[in-house]
Amino acid sequence: MGYITIGIAFGLFTVERGYPWYVALATGIIMFAGAGQFIAVGLFAAGASLAEAVLIEFVVNARHMAYGLSMIRRFRNAGVFRPYLIFALTDETFALLSSLPEISAAEDSSEVYNAGLAERGRFMFLVSLLNQIYWNTGILIGAFAGSIIPWNFEGVSFALTALFIVLMIEQILRIKRPAPFIISALAAAAAVFLLPGVLSSRFSLLSAMIVSLGAVLLFETRRTVKRDIPC
Length: 231
Hints:
The protein is mainly α. It has helices at residues 2-16, 21-30, 35-45, 50-61, 63-70, 72-75, 82-87, 91-97, 105-108, 111-148, 158-175, 179-194, 197-228.
């Protein structure tokens, strides 16, 4: 339901910027990047150059490097599904697939356990594929509705932010460790308010990601060391 709802918002947003419905659908099939699609449409509608669009999209989607690193072991034995799993690793799909238990080194080398890995790879593939289908279904609904019905588009683009907030809350409730999220929020706020105007608008997300990853890694390392020290 989240994907369909946000897809509708993106379809409405795209046609409101003057693009036909098939452009909205094409971005959902080729890019499948959520926030990246909203940003791309806004950039091209504003007349941004290709170089500017590439730079901004790279900064916005740099978080996927962290996603990919954390999913290496889960995707390792996905077989023919692996290329699509890498392509389709959006924020929401990552939130779902990262909740699967990670494979230990002992299990990874077990022939008996490997028999079940192919089935799990198929499961992850279907989750990713269904998410993309839901997303594009929403895009089609929104694009067609926006073409034939007058809409007030104010606030529509905030729907994606709202979905991220819900996913974050669900993750906090699941792992019951709010510290990494608090650290990330403080890093994001610091990047926005401490960087100068131009740098803040273009590099706040990348700066916040680097700082928060380093801080969380340090925090978790110290937490593990303290836990392992005998009393």
